[in-house]
Amino acid sequence: MFQPNDPNKHALEKYSSAISLGDMEIFVFPELLYALVLANIMSPIVWAWKEEDWAKKLEKKTPYRRIQRLKQHIMDVYDFNLDLDTWGLTTKQREMARFEDFIDPEILSQSNALFGYEGDKYYFDLDIRRHFGLDKYTNDTIPYWKTETVEAMDAFRFKDGYHSGAGECVSFSTLYAAALFVVGGVPLEDIYMLATPLHSQNFVNVRDGIITNNRRIVTKNMWFNGSEITWKAQRALRNEKITIVANNTGYIHTMYPEATIDPDSYRKGMDALAVFLTTKIDMEILSNFLRQHSDLQSCFQVRHDFHGGHRYVEAEKVYTYENTSSYRVNDDTRDKLLEEIDTYEFFPEPIEGRIVLNNFEDFFKQNPDLDLNEPADLAMLLDAFSCTNARARNVGQKLVDFCHIEPKFPERKRFVKSNPIQLEAEWGRTRIIETLESMRADHPEADLAFYAYRDLTRTDWAPFVKAALERNPVVVQGLRKKSEARAVEILSNLPHESIYGESRLAQPDEVWNFRRGDGVELALSLATVLKSRVPDRPVALAIHPDKAEVQWEDQTATFPSNKGLRHEVTV
């Protein structure tokens, strides 16, 4: 557990990172990823979902059905947000100086997108900085990209330009993990968090498997449907290294030699993921493959049995019609799709130089167990392709790549025994919080969870204050041109209500982004602004159950509070 007088810089840096929860901080301190899951599991917001009518109707349904409905709820109430201005900017130099005692710069450059890593060729072509809107800043500038708690996600509805909650990818992955457990009834051991340099998602070992991807979920059938949405969902696992895998037993990290995740649990989950990421080739998969690889559609034509005869149409035209139709190329609605195509688009005879896609139906019926990993099976399939189009020459490898993704897991590690976090959703929120409280002395993730949860009656103030003063540039920028007296006035005029209940506190940038805060939060926001202007100037904070005072030089500002907290500190 964190000790207030611990001279260990590592401890204060880690525990303060549990407050700010930046993507960089989670990469350096991987325990924070699951700590936020636990903080969301403790949140009354997630438990309130369980009492809503849509969730109560699912009580007797399977976890799979619950997950499907949970997905719809998340899509209804949250937007995806990756706006650079939300949590402000920092610099590579500042972050490297902060973490120089914790991380090898060379490993960092290979594992973090903002410090040089750009994945495989796909990401080099994409131009990472332009993709994220960083090209308008110097190469040294990077975003904080803080991961939001569920309370902060909900609070986006108060932010200008937003009409609902919002969050970035790590926020969605940690929220999904918590909600899958609380509302979906999925055991914690079946939820695996997968972090890559540019993305975060979960693999849920239910039925054939499910991958959560920002607001959406992807089933195995969806994973191989060849759609644009699915292709985007695949990008991280296709092109990036997996830097962290975490579940309730621990984590494995690409940078650290020791892994705390239970090796049996890890192998079970990753074996199931490997099955999820692999499919056998059949007519449906071939059609889906061509949907994704539109450059190969010109090698094919589709035959339509019509009025006792045959007519033919280019495959790319059929897929174009599919875009605006409820019918598909690859299932029993194909004839209805073809009937929607204008008659003049068809040819009465086969089109020279094109393969008749329908012919593969018989081919796959005759070869139901075709395995593209077997050279003989692959050769037999390629023999069935004959096309003068030069782009068809690499169809074999593209088919193999489409049907199978080989994740780039962290290299072999030394597994060390750790205590799993054993919780049951049936216990209810109160017992779960009590259980996590009892585990704090022996389990880092449980202890860090209370810091991510922001309960100042259960945590030390030092990490919270450190995070407030050092990592909240948005409020500083927002009040940059205001006098100190005007800054006090602006903060005093904000609604005196916190986005967190009970004795939990928001950070200054949350106060500024969502334009509200309890007196303690307003006082910390003012202190952050004052220290940014004159770093050597002492600023005293006196927190009382009903008010919070800020004293600097010969001035005092007082804000009413209903948090019931007590604390005094000079920063």
Description:
This protein is of the alpha+beta class. It folds into 3 domains: 10-278 and 408-453, no CATH class; 283-402, no CATH class; 461-570, no CATH class. It is 44% helix and 14% strand. It has 29 helices and 19 strands. The strands form 6 sheets. It has a 6-stranded antiparallel beta sheet, sandwiched between helices. A 4-stranded antiparallel beta sheet has the order 18-17-16-19, covered by helices on one side. Helix 27 packs antiparallel against helix 29. The longest helix has 15 residues, at 63-77. Residues 117-125 have low confidence and may be disordered.
N-to-C span = 23 Å
The strands making up the biggest β-sheet line up spatially as 8-7-6-5-9-10
When the domains are counted, the total is 3
- Tally of contiguous helical segments: 29
Summarize model confidence as the mean pLDDT.
90
Rg, Cα atoms, Å: 27 Å
Shape: elongated
Residues in β-strands, percent: 5-15%
Low-confidence stretches: 117-125
Question: Helix content range of the residues, please?
Answer: 40-55%
Please identify the structural class as seen in this structure: alpha+beta
Largest sheet: 6 strands, antiparallel
How many DSSP-defined strands?
A: 19
